[in-house]
């Protein structure tokens, strides 16, 4: 299932890697695309939205409702 998140606090390639790794920890098969300029994260995953949001937030980023 493809899900889109508006994430604030990402400012560099390191942030992109951290978010990507956090999402892949909860779903190793997830496909993650990050648009740093737009603060947008697209995730194709079988995990719930809440699980994916928690993975991003736990790394110190904010996810818009």
UniProtKB/TrEMBL annotation:
Name the record gives this protein: Copper chaperone
* Highest taxon, organism lineage: Bacteria
Q: Which GO terms describe its molecular function?
A: metal ion binding
Q: Which residues form the HMA domain?
A: 1-64
In terms of Pfam families, this protein maps to: HMA (PF00403)
Q: Give the residues annotated as coiled coil.
A: none
Keywords in alphabetical order, please: Metal-binding
Quote the InterPro entries the UniProt record gives. Heavy-metal-associated_CS, HMA_dom, HMA_dom_sf
Q: Which Gene3D superfamilies match?
A: 3.30.70.100
Bilayer-spanning residue ranges: none
PROSITE patterns, A to Z: HMA_1, HMA_2
